[in-house]
Amino acid sequence: MFDIQDVGDRAYTYISTLAYVMTAAKSNHKTVWVLDRPNPIGGTVVEGPVLDPRFASFTGLYPLPIRHGMTVGELAQMYNDHFGIGCSLRVIAMANYTRDMLWPDTGLQWVQSSPNIPEWDTTLVYPATGLIDSAGVNNGTGYSKPFRYAGAYQLDGEKLAASLNARSLPGVHFRSAAWSPFSGFWAGKTLTGVELIVVDPRAFRAVRTAVELLVAIRRLDERAISIPSPAALDRDWGTDTLRKGLESGLGAEEILAEWEPATRAFITLRERYLLYGG
Description:
Blueprint: H1 14-27, E1 31-35, E2 47-50, E3 65-67, H2 72-81, E4 88-92, H3 103-106, H4 122-129, E5 149-152, H5 157-165, E6 172-179, E7 191-198, H6 206-220, H7 230-237, H8 241-247, H9 252-270
Helix pairs in contact: 1-2, 4-6, 5-6, 6-9
């Protein structure tokens, strides 16, 4: 029985664990029951990149976009059918749930899903900053507001905030900030950059924001983007196009445009597995 709260992001590995459970059940002639739960960031927005199978790992097993807009029950059906696990599966659907719900709309109390996801609204910013650390940008983990920051050592936060706010990104405002992580590589050092203030959760496009952050930081201070392990960055993002785009100086729009065809194809694919309408 799988009864675990997901956060709606491909890199949050509970959904990889689900696939492993289903695979093991198939091998051992067991039935998997999935007790479905809400996607806290909603089921209407889908954002790429779709994972390239060359970069499959526990961080991302199947060709899903980073923000997939599906529940664990819906994903289980896709895993079983489209990705060929083929176990005996029973999904217990939710009552009174609709795709357009964000977590507060459910009336449920958020229970911390992992140490760095203390509140439901942390799930909003997780797809924006959760993977920027593999490009050398600190995302606030190890501090009191995990995933709400983006910055580095001696980065000009005022200029970064001004640059990003000039882009008029939907649903988010950037405020210059300084913070000192309590743990990790940067423990005790003062980092500077921006804090993400989500002003409209429904309009906010987290993956676009991630790309905009990395492009803006690179243009402001190229030294702040550090990729010690290209393989790790490609694995985390499920593609090498982000890294290559940053290295070649592409703008955010150019990087995002490269992902659109695969994202649109995924949106079409997922329709047959949705339990709560399109």
